[in-house]
């Protein structure tokens, strides 16, 4: 096998295959007191259409209600900005937030520590790129 072909294959493998964009979000309708952040509420969003997760928190007389879903970035950002004035945290408050990472409409988490693989991958890509340049 020619070294340049091997290097190209490695670069393709390390960088991914250009998969379609799909994220997972929590999804539920009007859950009272339960923020529906458990595995049974996880859904796969529509590929290349629903690119964000949305979270609505409503304060009602009987307690806090939650709605979570997949959303398109345009619809989510319009909704969140339209309800911003009603996001007070008091009775009848409606807060809508948008985010674009997997399961980001779930509970707040501590910031994850990057894995060794995540730290090494950019170095491998650089190494393969340098190999390609040297072989050219």
UniProtKB/TrEMBL annotation:
Q: Which residues cross the membrane?
A: 118-135
Question: Is Transmembrane a UniProt keyword of this protein?
Answer: yes
Asked if Disulfide bond is a keyword of the record, the answer is: yes
SUPFAM superfamilies in the cross-refs: Snake toxin-like
- Gene3D superfamilies linked to this entry: CD59
Top-level taxon of the source organism: Eukaryota
Its recorded name reads LY6/PLAUR domain containing 1
Gene that encodes it: LYPD1
């Amino acid at each position: 096998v020619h070294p340049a072909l091997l290097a190209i294959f490695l670069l393709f493998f390390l960088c991914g295959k250009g998969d379609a964009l799909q994220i997972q979000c929590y999804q539920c309708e009007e859950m009272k007191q339960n923020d529906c952040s458990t595995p049974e509420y996880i859904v796969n969003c529509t590929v290349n259409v629903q690119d964000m997760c949305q979270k609505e928190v409503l304060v009602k007389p009987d307690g806090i209600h939650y709605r979570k879903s997949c959303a398109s970035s345009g619809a989510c950002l319009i909704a969140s900005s339209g309800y911003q004035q009603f996001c007070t945290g008091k009775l009848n408050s409606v807060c809508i937030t948008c985010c674009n990472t997997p399961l980001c409409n779930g509970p707040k988490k501590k910031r994850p520590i990057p894995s060794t693989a995540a730290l090494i991958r950019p170095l491998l890509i650089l190494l393969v790129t340098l190999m390609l340049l040297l072989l050219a």
